[in-house]
Amino acid sequence: MTTSQRVDQQRAAEQRRRELLEAADRVVLRDGPGASMNAIAAEAGITKPILYRHFGDKGGLYRALAVRHTDALLEGLRAALDAPAERRRRVEATLDTYLAAIEARPQVYRFLMHPAEESNTSERSFDVGRHSAPLLRRLGEELAVVIAERVELGPEGTELARAWGHGIVGMMHAAGDWWLREQPFPRERLVRHLADLLWGRLATAGNRADGPGF
What we know:
By secondary structure, the protein is an all-alpha fold. About 75% of the residues lie in helices and about 0% in strands. It contains 9 helices and 2 strands. The protein has helices at about 5-30, 35-45, 50-55, 60-80, 85-105, 105-115, 130-150, 155-180, 185-205, and strands at about 150, 205. Strands 1-2 form a two-stranded antiparallel sheet. Helix 1 crosses helix 2 and helix 5 runs antiparallel to helix 9 (about 185-205). The longest helix has 29 residues, at about 5-30. The chain is globular and about 60 Å long. About 25% of the residues are buried.
């Protein structure tokens, strides 16, 4: 096989994988945590063994979908943090970006964060918690990098940035999960409440002289 043929084959495989992930997204939007490999295969117009060939099992498909949605969410969070506005507004915009994402696609959020209450026997062993924890850790590490780049936190800056990054992600996840289930008040009020909680030291910390401002 020539180099050109290998490149074409790789592109075709990547395109097919994108198509399968889009089919999976459609099923998840419809079925939420109850989305099954059978339903996804049917939506894609293939058999389940072919789906397994691409992703291995439901865990492999979950990880691929998690990367797809986490990448999009991180892009939105970075854009909010880099927007030309004063710091408090950017904090609120960052919180709102996360909450707006889970509000807009609650079934996707539930698929990524919560197991189905009922599942067929072949998929009953799928452990959502085991797969969702790395997703939250990734968000925490990415946010820590952004904080370290933008806020002057003194000699313990790296330690604080990581603690804050993971703490903020944990707060957004827990508060967002509760809010999405109960919808006790509008999203903008939750954004304001969480920003008030975070604002303490962020209000007085300076911008890093050797990095982008925050």
